[in-house]
Amino acid sequence: MKRRTFLTTATGLAASTALPGLAIGKPGKSANGKLNIAFIGSGGWIAQQPYNQGCSEENLVAFCDVDRNHCAENMKAWRTTQPFFEDFRVMLDKMHKEIDAVVISTPDHTHFPATLAAMERGIHVYTQKPLTHNLWQCRTLMKAKERYKVMTQMGNQGHAGDGIRDSVEAVRGGVIGDVSQVFCRNSGPQMGGPHFANPAVMPPPSSPVPAGLDWDLWLGPAAKRDYCADYLPQKWRAFYDFGNGMLGDWGCHTLDTPVWALDLDPPTAVECLRRESSLDGVIPSASHIRFHFPAKGSRGPVALDWFDGPQDWTQVGRIEKFGIEHMAKSSPACWLVGTKGLLGCGTHAGAPMILPQELRSQWQAKPPAQTMPRVAGGPFREWLRAIKGEGPEPGSNFDYSAKLTEIILLGVLAQRFNSRIEWDAKAGRITNHPELNAFVKEPAREGWSYGEAL
User: Fold this and answer.
1) I want to staple 71 with a disulfide (CB 3.0 to 4.6 A). Which of 42, 112, 297, 370 is the partner?
2) Are 49 and 401 in contact, with CB atoms under 8 Å apart?
3) What fold does the segment set 162-371+404-439 form as a domain?
4) CA atoms of 51 and 62, how far apart (whole Å)
5) Is the pLDDT of residue 27 over 50?
6) d(C-alpha 230, C-alpha 254), whole Å
7) C-alpha angle 404/111/420, rounded to 5°?
8) In terms of pTM, does the model score above 0.70?
9) 3-159+379-397 has which fold?
10) Helix, strand, coil % (nearest 5) of the chain?
11) CATH 3.30.360.10 intervals, the chain
């Protein structure tokens, strides 16, 4: 049996059967049952995360990064002698028969081409959040998941935790009653800090390209432009062409609990209620976005408010019930407001806080039944077990995470254009500002176009 056929057969059984440790290797079957894994994006802590959380226990067969200096520390620490590539397209062309799975830890704008290029070759994918850079890419990766039958996972780590399951079970068990309002917040971005640039002019001033960086490959599908020192290694998040601001950076974590617990589909409308001014193409230092979700089943409509940046929390995000005057009353970054009480959770989901105290005591004394299996070892091991057929499909697979990312990206568009977006989810189009449909599917440079046939 060929290696790819063997792995596909095993993963097809994963959802219903826990298989014993099977020997997987190249060529044929190995004696240790390990997967062959490659990294696309190998520098900094973002690559250390998969390395330390399960992937180093498998066979690491290749590394790829456009910036040799940025990943030099990791390569030295890991004492790696495996092949190193700058262009993931070259790596996949040369080594796809030797690679079972890839972890993609690139900037937002190259998530999609790297992910789809791997899926087309039957390679399992773990892609960091947000899953894609535009809405069309979300829909296309859902189609790719169905066509290529590989195991997929997006890196919103809290989705694999016990805390979010406790929250979902509490909400669905009616602990806080019917929920019609959600508040989410984050005090960032810190413009000009380590993660978000704060340019004085746009386009930003040009800088010499540093040694070891292939700037053209870093741009990937984005339009050509001069290099600026503000872009790398992390401040690209402040530029809409490459990142998606605080919503893209944190929304996939913080909105995960309400989206999962309330089974939220993409909203019918998203409006920007407040936005600090910013240069064209640059995220604002603060904003207030409201998502309008339609009723579904026995649940009524839901309004979800997102606040980012410095805010007067005594004036915004007010919760007038149950003794909570505003969102800064306690630490949670997300509050679900029910008819009986509140459920709060952290930026990365985590354990629920239920208020008022009397309701919390009742919940602690008699929590709802655990209806969801708990995940051992975190999201990377969850994904690796699924590939081997030793566990079920990951919870943040692309069917779920593409929907979550679509919600986030609609908020990004409303924020970017300081507008109300009315969304026809069935058609995948903006109906009230048709000119903004140009941003639903962004153009890609020649050589970087993927998914057109899906």
Assistant:
1) 42
2) no
3) Dihydrodipicolinate Reductase; domain 2 (3.30.360)
4) 13
5) no
6) 27
7) 45
8) yes
9) Rossmann fold (3.40.50)
10) 35, 20, 45
11) 162-371+404-439
